[in-house]
Amino acid sequence: MSLERVQQVATPQADDWIVTLKLRSGGIVTRRVTPGRIDAEFALRCALRAQGVKPQEVSDAEIRRAGAARVVVPVDDGFADLMRRAKND
After folding, report:
1. 13 pLDDT above the threshold of 60
2. Number of domains forming the structure of the chain
3. Which of 76, 46, 72, 47 is nearest to 61 (CA)?
4. Which residues form the domain of 72?
């Protein structure tokens, strides 16, 4: 792996994903997902897996670029619907 590739993972970038999960249990978790070249769906899957939660355990989610304005996406029924709504922003 090249030094440039390592720096992309180790150094925060404006195009990294910020995923915030509001859990039905009341907790809120925010994960930064890098590298930014992955798509929003994969970033959300990474955040869910890193936190060890299922889509059904999430009441709201926010997916945005680290350098972008916030967009809140309500979640009430699963991963596919979350992605459908997130792509419409």
Report:
1. yes
2. 1
3. 72
4. 3-86
